[in-house]
Amino acid sequence: MSRLSDFVIEAHGGLPRWLQFTQLSADLDQGGVLWGLKGQPHTLERTGVTVGLKAQWASHGPFGSDGRRSRFEPGRVAIENADGMVLEELLLPRESFAGHTLQTPWSELQLAYFAGCAMWAYLTLPFLLAWPGVESEELEPWPTDSGDLRRLAVRFPATIATHSTLQTLYFNGDGLLKRHDYNVEIAGNTPGAHLVSDYIEVSGIKIPTRRRIFARQPDGSFSPEPLVVSIDLSNIRLA
Questions:
Q1: Do the Cβ atoms of 79 and 66 come closer than 8 Å?
Q2: CB atoms within 10 A of CB 183
Q3: Which class would CATH give 3-238?
Q4: pTM over cut 0.90
Q5: What is the dihedral of CA 33, 39, 41, 42, to 10 degrees?
Q6: Which of 15, 72, 141, 215 is deepest in the core (most CB within 10 A)?
Q7: What is the pLDDT of residues 61-100, one digit of tens each?
Q8: For strand 86-91 and strand 135-142, is the pairing parallel, antiparallel, or unpaired?
């Protein structure tokens, strides 16, 4: 890892503390134009998510109605009933997005894949920087009205299902993550600027509770309209 990676991991609670836990759970309140654009306006509007910290998996529940829940892993996504019985599943789910653009609707299984893939990365950063095969390099600082942000260019291995191979993380002077840039490959490489804020401390780990995602322009700027995705987290638990 780079020196900046070490610094920001320590700022969020430190790797030894993080490694004591095996999963993270939270309640989610989600909005933005993306869900309706994909034909899934309410399925994950108010739900809960649990992500694995030792392996890449995630589960959203409820997933729509009838007590259903999702199960995401890189090579498989499924929808289960309240008793854990598989109702639907899709193997090699990422392949199903071939040819998609931002406007292409998603099936429920594709929604489960996107949401699981996204939330796993969001909730494991910046500790994901210590994951085997993840590489990072510090870039030039990014100027803002409230001061320069330090930046990391991050390259993810093919073994991790995530938005894009290359992503950029921005950190303030205290080492806290403030912005996360990526291209959503499964939605036509749509560029996003993802702002994070409102940190709380949970079991010694600092976690942002407010996330707002906007369309990123080629120069790195973004407009506050439209709001692509909003995510508010509460009742965060580490176990």
A1: no
A2: 16
A3: mainly beta
A4: yes
A5: -160
A6: 72
A7: 999 988 999 999 999 999 999 999 999 999 999 999 999 9
A8: unpaired
